[in-house]
């Protein structure tokens, strides 16, 4: 094994002594991954001797901390700590001047549909400044926004970032965050979460003509008074997730999104507090997947002529007042999947009776329902696909 360059271990029982022996014999390792090993609680110290390592992943383990000696891995480019228990990083992180990808979070609860399910990591202003010296970092997520007023300003020095994930953003930090991301010309993924689901994200402070135009994936979690004015200018956007926005009808929640020329996926959770959600004529022309979840007062979805002509997957969840199917003949002709979760009995009854409205869905290949949001547990599952109709 002395010439081994890559070692990936998946869902194996972690024997500490055996792991030590294996790593001791693999001094030339460039890539090491230890994934899905819940028995692993302590960071494997033997890794620190692998000074040629470029990629290190210990995702889906119960590791709680990273030793300061991580700084000895001076050639490390990727450190992946996703789905671990790490909540803080040592000072040694700032000495990894070749680091390009730093991905870390822990799931505080098993239900990822809850606000704050994924917890970010503490990160000081000094660590940000240290990483900005080489300016090689491209992915940084999920990071808790430091209360130090210089934190977001220091973050702006990471100008080559392509992916940025932040949690615990206060409303008053919105202006500074906008100034920060304006400097990141290559940013393609932005994920921002407020301190709570009742905290507003105040992000309408982008200077005219200065939003990150290469942004392809945008996720905003927190209240919005309206969709920030700069979002309709992001012509490269392919996927948007807007959660816990709680906007009312006066905010025209779909207007700012409907003409984005490359938008393919739209995920909306607790996004809108109104009763009617309308998709206008000839809007969302490239949308392929749409998810509508937890619209508590919604009782009608209207779909205009030639709206969402490319839609293939539609998911509707937890809309207790929605009683009627949002379709009529000619709507969503390319739809392949209709997935329903925790919907009222009257809504589901539409699929179980022979009616003209149900007939409009005979072209849909898969229609599934479950009482359990996001899960197809055997109890409460129904296959309502046309092939099952009688």
Structural commentary:
The protein has 390 residues and is an alpha/beta fold. Helices cover 11% and strands 24% of the residues. The chain is built from six helices and 19 strands. It has helices at 16-24, 125-132, 151-155, 174-181, 345-352, 356-359; strands at residues 6-10, 31-35, 55-57, 78-82, 101-107, 118-119, 139-144, 163-169, 189-194, 217-221, 239-243, 265-269, 276-279, 289-293, 300-303, 313-317, 337-341, 366-370, 381-383. The strands form two sheets. The protein has a 17-stranded mixed β-sheet that branches. Strands 13-15 form a two-stranded parallel ribbon. α3 (151-155) links the parallel β7 (139-144) and β8. The longest helix is centred in the N-terminal third of the chain and has 9 residues, at 16-24. It starts with 5 loop residues before the first strand and ends in a 7-residue tail after the last strand.
